[in-house]
Amino acid sequence: MNIIHIVPHYPPSLGGMEVVAQELAERQAKAGHTVTVLTSSNAAKAGVEKPHPNLTVKRLRYVEIAHTPIIPGIFFGLLRAQKPAVVHLHVAMAATPEMTAIASLLRGIPYIVHFHLDVGPLGTFAFLLPTYKQHFLGRVMRNAQMVVSLADSHQKFIAQTYKVPRHKLRVIPNGVGEEYFLPAKKKANKKPVIFFVGRLSVQKDIPMAIKAVAQMKTDVTFRIAGDGDQLNELKQLIAEIKSKRITLIGPKRGAEKLEEYRRSDICLMTSEREGMPISALEAMAAGHAMIVSDIDGLRETVGEDGILVKPRTAAAFTKALDSVAGNAKRLTELQARSRKRAKQYTWQKVCNAFEQLYTEALNAR
Known about the structure:
Layout: E1 2-6, H1 16-30, E2 34-40, E3 47-52, E4 55-60, E5 63-65, E6 68-70, H2 72-79, E7 86-91, H3 96-107, E8 111-115, H4 129-143, E9 146-149, H5 152-162, E10 169-171, E11 193-197, H6 206-214, E12 221-225, H7 231-241, E13 246-248, H8 254-263, E14 266-269, H9 278-285, E15 289-293, H10 298-302, E16 307-309, H11 314-325, H12 328-342, H13 347-364
Parallel strand pairs: 1-2, 1-7, 2-4, 7-8, 8-9, 9-10, 11-12, 11-14, 12-13, 14-15, 15-16
Antiparallel strand pairs: 3-4, 5-6
């Protein structure tokens, strides 16, 4: 099978969508499929990489407008694509979907939309967002062979917001790597360690997490791993609060990230909106007690095996954190429940589901 992944950013860029695209591309290549990734060159120089004999990553030059990469090479790359092929379009930003849809339709190549997160405000052009969703992104999604969302709530949202016919909608959750299933600690930390890893962006609302931890009665450590647009703002906030328990530790990948999961006890996510964050699945597999916003995406991921915080305020998060960090028995119980819940999410299941979807799309075309 010839599979073409279209994704605005790709590792080493940080983010759940990027991780999902990489996991699928690499596993599909190892399974014997011919896989091409078309992405921006923001995290590396423009060029071609071959991390596996069956996998080609093409990092294309781009222009950024309102924090959105415009990548003309995607359009021309699809015009030259070898058929038969299926296009896997990862959606969380504007512009890329439209170029992909037009090129795919011109070539008669079926494409599926993988809806990771609803398109957010476009900076200076935020006032155009409702029009864009209705007349541009909506059309892209309705013309796709299928639209994949991460949870049932997202499926309902897509049907209502983008008017995608129900028969085109599918739900395929994200997966988590086997390496994140860590054994329980033999000896508990004297001071509970709270951990966050991810992109430091507005949607994650890290300032709320910082304020919540700073107000806790229980003595804890809060380690924040990642990089992003809010980095300087977070540094300033931590300096103003003057809390020694909160530390920005920079981006962590591979063995370094695993070590952070190994040393931590609680995963804190104060996001205002989410798809199905990979970092939440990783934290659950690693045996973290989950304290997260009660919002779509996190609600389905964590469920009754963690603490869903509502209302989404610093005071509510502080109360939830103290109730867990200050109670060793409850902390241990939530950690065990996280490990058990994470076992239902595997990348093999995700890959199998997408392979069936590709076959269905090619046969329908």
